[in-house]
Structure formats: C-alpha cells, structure tokens
C-alpha cells in the first residue's frame, strides 16, 4: 500500500501541481500571444506593401504582388515524434529568374550532400563562388549574374534565401512576430530577384559579361560558356516557324521563354505531363500575363501546392478562374 501514490504526491505535492498548472497557463498564453503577434506583424506588412492576409485555423498567410513579383509568407508546422515545430516560410515568385539553384553557406552543406564537385558552377568570381553554391546551365546563370546581381544574391543567401528552380525561398524558425523582420527579409529577397532580371536578351547579357565584367575570371567563364552553348538560348528547333506538336514539344520546351515554349508546355500539360520544366514555363507565363486563361486551366490539371500559391497572385478578370484552379489542386489527393 505504501508504494501507491496519490496524484498530489506524484507531482511533488500541492506546490508541484501549482507549478505545473502555472507552466501550462504561461505556455498557453505564450502560444496564443505568438499566434496573435504573428498575424498582427503580417497585417502591418500587408498594409505597407499592399498585400493581403488570410487566416486558416491557427495559421496565417500573407499573399499578393509587389509590382509583377508574387510574394507569399506562411506559418507552417513540422512534426517530429511528439514535438510540433512552427516555422515562417517565405517565397518570392519573380519573372525572368534563371532556372537552377543558388544557395548560401547557411544552407550549403545540406544542399551539396551527395553531389559531385563538378556539378557546382564556377562563375569566375572567387569570392562569390566561395560563398554561394550555384547549380544550373552555366550560360544561363552567367547571363543573369552581373556584378550587381552577384552582390544582391550574396546578400540574400547570407540572410537565408535560396533560389530553387525559379522560386526564392527562406525559412525562419518559429512564428515571426516582428513586422520589421518580415519586411527586412522580403526586401533583401526582392532585391536579389530584381537584380537577376535581364534588361534585354540573354545572348546580349552573356556577351556583356564576356566583354565588360569587372572581373577577368567572369569574363573568361562567360567567353567559354558562349563557345560551349552557342544555341543554348533557342533550343534544338531549327525553324522557329515550325508548328509545335506533341512530337516536337519537348524540343520546343527547351527554348527560353518563347511563345513556342509556352505552346509546348500547354500541349504537354494536356497530356498530363507535370515535369518541372512544364510547370516552370507555366508559372512564368502567369507572371508575364501570357495566355492566362489557358495557363490557369493547365495548372489546374497538373499543378501542385507551389502552383496553387502562384495562382493566388492572379487578380482582375482571371481571378475567379484562378480560385477555381486552386480549389481543384487542393482537392487532389
């Protein structure tokens, strides 16, 4: 009988129970304070930047466009064993981003695990290459990475941003409760996305890098990329007037943001082809307002959660169609 303990004894007496209850009250209060403060911070940023805040249960979402750049900030959770961890995830969807990866030292070890050193690109800028892991087609990356863009990308990756595909992403642990912190992180990510956009065509940009970049290493790398990738910008289709069909759609898709590549993406999506290159071309069409209604229909059939987020940036005459597409994506298992 002496081994049986009451509830009070099990928790160290009345004092132990009081401390336990007090801890639960404080923990619950802190939880709801963070949830409210996170929502208030997003609302402040939304008012400042002309965005919208949405609530979904205990989660908060910040959505909208700044100029023609899509922005999304979400509170998310991950469960590990009996622990639930909260995060604040940031995404930027900007037109004319180079397709590939750019990841800074903060995330580098995770990104390069299992990769060969030869798969990392060298831009010829030693300081940049030391700090930023770059993966993709060399001519494409160098065309976008002038000196200003390299500085902006370096600042963004140091802040925790990474380019994956054509999307910039960042993650902060916990719910971010400071509007200033949200704005600051968005500012540095937006600066990188804007700096990577090309004022003209890629061929001219690569030529400028080869002729006038301030660093001789970059000039040499760009010149070599020109020689190795003379037709990289126009894909494998010899005749631009040749109609796009199911048979040559993959070749046409390889062209860089041309009307033919969009036609190819639409044809392939109709056949259920949801490969990354197809979805990336459709996303870029959303931001460029190219054949918007057709693109929305295509994304409704093959898009995932990323494409659903992109569609939230559609406003005006196509907004209703975009909302229907989002619902269709979310309804899929």
TrEMBL record:
Transmembrane residue ranges: 12-33
Domain of life: Bacteria
Assigned keywords, A-Z: Membrane, Transmembrane, Transmembrane helix
Source organism phylogeny: Bacteria, Pseudomonadati, Pseudomonadota, Gammaproteobacteria, Chromatiales
Name of the protein in question: Uncharacterized protein
